Amino acid sequence: MQAMVLPAAGQPLRMEQRPVPAPATGELRLRVVACAVCRTDLHVVDGDLPLPVLPIVPGHEIVGVVEALGAGVQSHRIGELVGVPWLGHTCGHCFYCTHGSENLCDTPRFTGYHRDGGFATHVVAEADFCLPLGLLHQAPARVAPLMCAGLIGWRCLKAAGPGVRRLGLYGFGAAAHLIAQVATVQGCKVHAFTRPGDAEGQAFARSVGAVWAGGSDELPPQPLDAAIIFAPVGSLVPAALRAVRKGGRVVCGGIHMSDIPAFAYRLLWEERQVVSVANLTRQDANEFLVHVQAHPLQVHIATYALAQANEALADLRAGRVQGAAVLLP
Q: Which residues form a coiled coil (predicted)?
């Protein structure tokens, strides 16, 4: 097999030839068909997140075909198309796992972070955390971004609370362009906030349903019920608080964000809230996939060969990708 490997934080990925892995008990071996490139992958490669395992193969938005079953696996079959998301293992017995919050498990394992991910021709994953995709009638390259950009967007939209009719999305990348469509179907008027002066990004946002698009330094025409921040920029928190109404909520959807600057208490006053979203649950995945089956999404992608993983990461870092970058091994 071939794999793009991160030898150390801040270094380019390098191509390696490795033996094809055998699945252990409870695992699947997949032939990777597509793996989207997430901003979290960028945080891993750039060293924004502490790395528990090195070297590591990044990638956690995986679509693959089941090639081999480990002992005891009965939930999947050879030849099945499945997805592998960020959450790759939970303990099942800590407080959070037993109270419906497995996304907060005390000892989780994440794909492409604790265990090798999908920037490769083959990957091994726990069967219980693989998602059946047979009912999604889109090309695998367009399904791959759903495995994180879509899932985390779904969880963020749920965290925004019930009754949201005017929704702001700060940072209009892979997650925002998907969840804008979901929110529109649910009756929201989506307001997109991009880098100031990014006319192309604002036009893209309007093309997938935003009723208004402007720079992150602007205020929307009317106060928002809620805002979701996907860009890893801490200064967007006070900006979003300025944009939401009294009692409104700001959801921080990233795994990493630059420091939030000090801001006047009056921005938070009047029962505005700031909350964060961490990881996802399998229940989130099940809900989201049911929604996508009923309401297919326009998934905008830029594709790269596996050997071009560093190029894909560079394009994502520079904001040159409209939608999602996807590797095609």
A: none
Structure token pair of residue 150: 């879509």
Task: Count Cβ atoms below 10 Å from residue 6 Cβ, excluding itself.
Answer: 24
The Cα–Cα gap between 211 and 213 comes to: 7
Per-residue pLDDT of 58-103, as tens digits, reads 999 999 999 999 999 999 999 999 999 999 999 999 999 999 999 9
- Beta pairing partners, 208: none
Selection from 240, 214, 216 nearest residue 228 by Cα: 240
Produce one character per residue of 26-64: b if its CB has 16 or more CB atoms within 10 Å, e if not. bbbbbbbbbbbbbbbbbbbbeebbeeeeeebbbbbbbbb
DSSP of 210-237: -SEEEETTS--SS-EEEEEE-SS-TTHH
Rounded Cα distance between 144 and 159, Å, is 23
- Which residue do the tokens 């499945």 mark? 82
Q: Any idea which fold 151-276 has?
A: Rossmann fold (3.40.50)
112-170 pLDDT tens trace: 999 999 999 999 999 999 999 988 989 999 999 999 999 999 999 999 999 999 999 99
> What are residue 182's DSSP bridge partners?
none
CA–CA dist 72, 49 (Å, integer): 34
Give the Cα separation of 117 and 233 in Å (integer).
26
Does the CA dihedral 294-329-326-24 come out positive or negative?
A: positive
Give the mean pLDDT of 211-229: 98
- CATH number for 2-148+280-328 (one of 3.60.15.10, 2.40.10.270, 3.90.180.10, 3.30.40.230): it is 3.90.180.10
Tell me if residue 143 falls in helix, strand or coil. helix
Distance CA 213, CA 199 (A): 9
